[in-house]
Amino acid sequence: MKGSRLITLVILLAVMLAACAPKPTPTPVPPTPRPPTAVPPTAVPPTPVPPTAVPTPAGPPGLPAYTGGPATLRFGWWGNDARATITKKVIELFQAAYPQITVMGEPNGGTSDHFQIIDTQLAGNNAPDLIQFGGNYPDYMKYLEPLNDYVGKQLWIDTAERFDQTALIPATRDGKLWCVSLGTNTLVLAYNKTMIEAAGVALPKDNMTWDEFAAYGKELKAKLPKGVWAFVDNSTNTANYMSYYYRQQGTPIWTSDEGGKSYATLESGKKWLQLWADWRAEGLIVDADTTAMYAETGTDSSALVAGKAAIGLIWSNQLAAYQAAMTDKLGATTLPKGGEKSYAIQMSQYLGIYSGSKNKEAAALFINFFVTSPDAGAVLGTNRGVPSSPVVRTAISGQSTETDAAVYRIYNAVADRTIPQDPNLPNDQEFVNELRLIGQAVSLGQSTVDKGAADLQALIERLAKK
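Above: the chain's sequence. Below: its structure in token form.
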């Protein structure tokens, strides 16, 4: 008992002594230094980034970023097998750069076939996301997505260093950019160099007048084998040659004046059709029955490629494809000169986005890749025209072919008679189709030059009002 009380007293004494002892002074903790960039206490702190926000992803090297998820695009174009091959190679390059985007190519044959297919798809609300156009894109603006909001973002075409700014002008209507140029081209006269040299005739010179060109045709025809003509009948199988002639006469078929105006005259139509009627009578152009066999829409429907004529009209960007389709050597010269300036270096083709596309951002990225990527340019070359991107032109300058050199020579040869590109007549494809029928009727003797000219003028006036 006494032992217990003693232990208890000792414990109580120890507790009391501890309570009465002075408390130790704690070691002060220095304040955390404020970093130099810290917001001062009086400043309003920046708005914090929400926890759900994701930083903008970096794009592939040298390319804009893609912010969407997996997407599939359809791309419809016209052209031959060679164009299909290189286009598919570019698609593969694009898919490697943007693995989340798949592109399904839809080559549609020749130009007329392409637009028949596109028209049907548009009517059924089933058009491709990406559509290739010519100068007829204004006829399709109601189906297209304006591209202004993509420029500088997905479309890096907003500086002259990356893309010719003049190439944006023809693609712009009402302040909206509707499509992007795939390159420039111009009309040229391709000639069978092998055939002409075998005939013992000098090669055609650049910038001949119409009279000199006709005289050259007579000399050539006299020395060509039977069943071979000097010229393809290009009177009405394309509207562009005729438009060139009308411009020389000072009566352009369609202009942007006053929002769209035609200066076409009956007299210009008579002169054009009579020119070809005279050449037909003199045996300079392929006869009507043979001409009917060749639609002149590409290498597989060309009297020039078939060896029926020595000289024919094509677009400059087609020269390589025509050469590839022939064993004979091809050359190229300018269209005949005369009258007013009329040579247009124009946008060869355009690429636009269908307004019904569900993957517009991805589609814009594809267009950007197609027109500004040096890798794409190295594959495409000048198949769709001389590229509008200085970056691409520089990248491919070392791979210029002999046909490319011929095109560049022609660009230089016509430099003093070039003009801005005229817009296409409204309802362009209808004009092309009807023009061909008018020309066929005249060539087959089913109509006269005067009647054909009257029908042509009536057609122009009717379409201009639609």
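The domain at 187-346+419-465 is CATH 3.40.190.10 (D-Maltodextrin-Binding Protein; domain 2).
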